[in-house]
Amino acid sequence: MSTIQTEKLFTLTLQVATPIPSLGATPFGERKIAEVTGGVFEGERLNGTVRGGGGDWILVRNDGVTQLDVRITLETDDGASIYMTYRGLRHGPADVMDKLNRGEPVEPDAYYFRIAPAFETGDARYAWLNKLVAVGRGHRLPTGPVYEVFSVL
Fold first, then answer.
1. Contact 48/13 with Cβ under 8 angstroms?
2. pLDDT in tens, 43-83
3. In 3D, which of 62, 13, 11 has the Cα closest to residue 36?
4. What is the DSSP-derived secondary structure letter of residue 77?
5. Residue 138 pLDDT more than 90?
6. Angle, CA 109 vertex, CA 93 and CA 40 arms, to 5°
7. Taking the CB of residue 145, how many other CB atoms lie within 10 A of it?
8. 116 and 84 Cβ atoms separated by less than 8 Å
9. Of the candidates 150, 103, 107, which has an alpha carbon nearest to the alpha carbon of residue 129?
10. How far apart (Å, rounded) are the C-alpha atoms in residues 125 and 142?
11. 3-state secondary structure the chain
12. 125 near 107, Cβ under 8 Å?
């Protein structure tokens, strides 16, 4: 059986506002919504900034797993607009997650934080993004998440 190979696309650093107050306990868990206010992405094939106005529809599930649903717009240094969406999961031991939620430093390997991004663009220079499967691993800083994003070869 062969292994899955990846190639690094970029590092994505997001700035996220404090989530709006919880919508309360829904049938699926506690729902929060956080605005993505900006950020940067840097890689060999594309670099740029993250436009403000994106968001993360966070669900802290009843089993303690944080489920992410993020929608952002990337703007490359050469003027292309790329819509990026991703779903992801973050979880770990209760004490580690408590520290993380308080904004305390936590070693990235102490918890699980993975995403599955998808891209959409009408810019011919970046049309290759429309045709790939991507994965990412992240860690959380007090200002927002940082991801290493990879294309699956």
1. no
2. 999 999 999 999 999 999 999 999 999 999 999 999 999 99
3. 13
4. T
5. yes
6. 115
7. 23
8. no
9. 150
10. 34
11. CCCCCEEEEEEEEEEECCCCCCCCEECCEEEEEEEEEEEEEECCCCEEEECCCEEEEEEEECCCCEEEEEEEEEEECCCCEEEEEEEEEEECCHHHHHHHHCCCCCCHHHCEEEEEEEEECCCHHHHHHHHCCEEEEEEEECCEEEEEEEEEC
12. no
pLDDT at 2: 87
Residues 89, 69: Cα–Cα separation, whole Å: 9
User: What is the overall mean pLDDT for the chain?
Assistant: 95
Tell me the pLDDT band of 23, cut-offs 50, 70 and 90: confident
9: left (phi over 0), alpha (psi -120 to 50) or beta: alpha
Its pTM stands at: 0.94
Q: Record the tokens describing residue 56, joined without a space.
A: 């993360």
Q: Tell me the residue type at 41.
A: F
The architecture of the domain spanning 6-152 is Beta Barrel (2.40)
